[in-house]
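Try it yourself: sequence plus pyridoxal-5'-phosphate, in.
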Amino acid sequence: RYAYVNGRFVHHDDAAVHIEDRGYQFADGVYEVIPVHDRRLIDEGPHLDRLEYSLNELRIGLPMSRRALEMLARELIRRNAVTYGFIYMQVTRGVAPRDHKFPKKTPAPALTMTTRQLPKPSAEMEEGYSVVSAPDMRWKRPDIKSVSLLPNILAKQKAAEAGCQEAWLVDENGKVTEGSATNAWIVTKDNKVVTRRADNSILSGITRLSLLKVMEREGYELEVRPFSLEEAHDAREAFLTSSTNFVTPITRIDGRAVGNGHPGILTMKLRQAYIEQVVHGEGG
Ligand code: PLP
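Structure, out:
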């Protein structure tokens, strides 16, 4: 298995970065996860758009042209024979003697890539996930896909310890922002799909964006607004979206059944439509 590290493909076991890489010392960097399905990258364009957005917000340069990034990603997937899974890309501000402010002499941004092979998406996801709620303890710019993920890690660990697959983060107003690594959605009793606006308070999920397009095409009723944890508890259906989970039904929140406790009908229709149009389609 290979990894890409600052200009070279190296064996995964030998892949290493400098100890004064600012990503390592300060979490001064960003990342992307692009899903691979049947050897193809899904929504590669929007993922690279978001990478550029995150880098711009932090004033880190794009390490190379988009064309070059795309070629490297494809080459790593080919070398590692990834069929299903994802490619992970990370860009940090680079190596410099430890000092919080940006280095005077701008270092070359550090670029690394790894791949992960995962089982082909299975029926398990379609049985529905359980989630627990947890306070959203993150900084005020989760729209930047920063490698600083401690609050997300702690929330996900809480979920795991509760036998759940995800944690839903709740802000100080009692509203659900998003999951620790997924976007959050509910379906109301009158069949309206509700999701929060992608402002600075959440990561603008690529799966979320693609699903919104699918919904528009298919004429689903949508409400873009925050929803409270209480509303989620009482919702008819709930689901999450992410690159590796696609559209996944949620059947329990904080131990309580959502709706009838089975994956929602509308949710499963959306999952099907997403898979047909985005995963098997042109890639959105
Ligand atoms: N929200 C957070 C905090 C995430 O880390 C992720 C990504 O994995 C998502 C949402 C879903 O985004 P995407 O659909 O681009 O995978």
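One thing you can check immediately is this: The chain has two domains: 2-117, 123-279.
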